[in-house]
Design a protein that fits this description.
elongated; 230 residues
């Protein structure tokens, strides 16, 4: 029954978002499409599952279900706007539950579900709701790692001859710092371990890239002409 409720949540997510466009995205073309929110939400649910299976906790089956459903639906409001999308998402899901009383009764605590969706974005809030901690950590973990390397590269002009040098610099000076900041936002030990592994991978990638750029590492910060003073 729980899997059917989750599948209903996924079907609603897709039906609500389908064919809509995110018009505020600038850097990442794939984020303009409604499919981006679906894929992100499914990955966040996957992280939530991993965290709950890795952590020692006393969550009931109902709480586990609510956390997974919140992960699936947490960003549904983001199709309309980035700012306060959590509040909008809460209202969208609230209306869905009103129209689907069977699902509403199955999850038992719909107010908790709506609360998780509403509060998921405030990562610096010290709320002690364990389900919310799982959801927030799962949300932070997504798009860090291999995905963030691709996303960082998207901020650099691919026609620039110094592309790889600029990528190396940006990853080292910005992305690693972002990982450090993200670590401070996490609530669970399992999430911190996962993010440390992601950080190690990014660091290894940077080291390999710098090794391949050996002899040209200063270029990109200065032009060839300036470096050799032509």
């Amino acid at each position: 029954m729980n899997e059917e409720v989750l599948n209903e949540g996924k079907r609603f997510l897709i039906s609500y978002l389908k064919d809509k466009t995110i018009d505020y995205e600038v850097y990442h073309p794939w984020r303009k499409s409604w499919e981006f929110i679906v894929l992100h939400s499914l990955r966040v649910e996957g992280y939530a599952r991993k965290l709950m299976s890795s952590e020692e906790h006393n969550l009931s089956q109902d709480e586990v279900l609510i956390t997974q459903l919140a992960a699936i639906l947490h960003d549904i409001g983001r199709i309309h706007r980035r700012e306060q999308h959590a509040l909008l998402g809460r209202d969208i899901v609230h209306n869905w539950l009103k129209e689907n009383q069977e699902i509403n009764e199955t999850i038992k605590d719909s107010n908790r579900l709506l609360y998780l969706i509403e509060k998921h974005s405030d990562k610096e809030d010290n709320d002690q709701d364990y389900c919310l901690k799982i959801l927030r950590d799962a949300d932070v973990l997504d798009e860090i790692g291999i995905l963030s390397i691709f996303m960082t590269s998207n901020r650099i002009d691919r026609n620039n001859p110094y592309f790889f040098n600029l990528l190396s610099n940006r990853l080292e000076n910005i992305e690693i710092n972002y990982c450090e900041k993200a670590l401070k936002l996490l609530n669970t030990e399992s999430a911190r371990l996962m993010l440390e592994e992601k950080k190690k991978f990014i660091t290894s990638f940077i080291d390999q890239l710098k090794d391949e750029l050996y002899g040209t590492e200063m270029l990109g910060q200065v032009s060839i002409e300036d470096y050799f003073r032509y």
